[in-house]
Amino acid sequence: MSSKQPAFVLSHASDIDGSKDMYEMPALNRQLNILAKRYFHVLTLVNACFGAGLYGMTTGAGNSNAYSKPGAIAIAAGDNKTEVYSLNKEKGSVFFDLIIYGVTSGVADERYGKSYMVKVDGKKEFYAGITRTLSLFVYLNDRYIDVNQELADRGQTLRLSDAWIGSTEDQIGAGGFFFINEPSSTSLDATTQTAVRNDGEFTNLDATPFSADVIKPVSTPAPPPVNENAIEIPYGPVSAIPHRPDIRIFKAPDIYPIKGHDISAADGEIDWNTLKKESKARFIYTRVVGWKGYDSSFKSNWQNLKNSQFDRGAYLKYDFCRSPESQLDTAKQYLNNDPAMLPVGILLVHPAGEDRQQLACFEKGGMNGARQNILIFAELVKNHYRKTPIFYGNHNNLSNFLDSRFDSYMIWMGFWGKTSVKLGGSNPWTLWQYSGNEKVPGIGPQTESEVFFGTEEQYQQFRQGNTNIALSAVK
Question: Where, by residue number, does the polypeptide cross the bilayer (predicted)?
């Protein structure tokens, strides 16, 4: 038995007993352990001979189908003593071919592979779903059995070993990963194929369906049963389920065609020439006042936005130490009533852990008093600027402050780098701040970026500010 650590032998290796062009598996494991501490989920797929030698360095355990819990999972194509194979030179490896087919077709997860329905133009078009880590692993091993049976029937001695799964994060339960199934284009009718290609919602639309026949004639498994009671997910840019505004939807930001940013003095000096030339944003919000008073960048930002192609909006940070009336007076002092500007934003931040003076003011009236004054301020802003304001904050702050009395107002929710949405109530989001560190030429590498929830027509209604358009869209 060799005393050497198990290692990946790289293509330029010349001495199996040497260290040059070798990548020791424990070294990779240590790197994966570091990654696991930085990210909620880390999934590693190891298609390497003797790949299960990666394990043995960690003691994590858990349920890898529990994708709402953090974890770091690795799936190896074989055990620590067996080679892995590609049985058809025109295809990839057995391991990755099966993973791709199992996910894109939905067959790898019988329960959730067809768990939601995507509709185009209000018509039932196709089912999609998710594939969970453990389900994918079980599917892989079941298909390995099929391949081995085909090999045996042909009199071949070659055998695939079982795939292996384990945690790469030490001392923590192994929560799971999941894939979103994206159907191949040939599973959709011609009209839908054209629609989804034009909109760009699906990125996996191939000219021909993927085949998992790694060797002939391995049979294609039957598709999972269709769940006729599946939740209907509207096609395109949406923020909630129709008739269920409490069920929010967060698709990939690229699905939403109308994007923007918000800026303040914290962004430093902005290169407006570069921004106007490079940015594809439709709107930009800029801060007027914060807890420390007037934002020194507002006047310049507001004028530059007026001279740009961007729709401009302004937001005010609610101050718990001042009356609603005095805050409106300050807003009127710096922010003229421009009919072309977007609805005014009202930033809500709970002062606990943020500002002692603001916290002392907040505690005098408590949460009920704060909510009442915020509602008064919102009504004053609406009456003066003639547009329904939009409440801005992260999902925890909005859950703290907003109740059903706020449903007539729009929501601008900051939600990124978190584990779950805790937004209470039944008001869907109108703007979603999906990132706080996007690299935007002209602004910088840590720009706050937003998407609008809906279509061009709905965006024009948002600009007019007559109603809570996101809530109206799903009622």
Answer: none
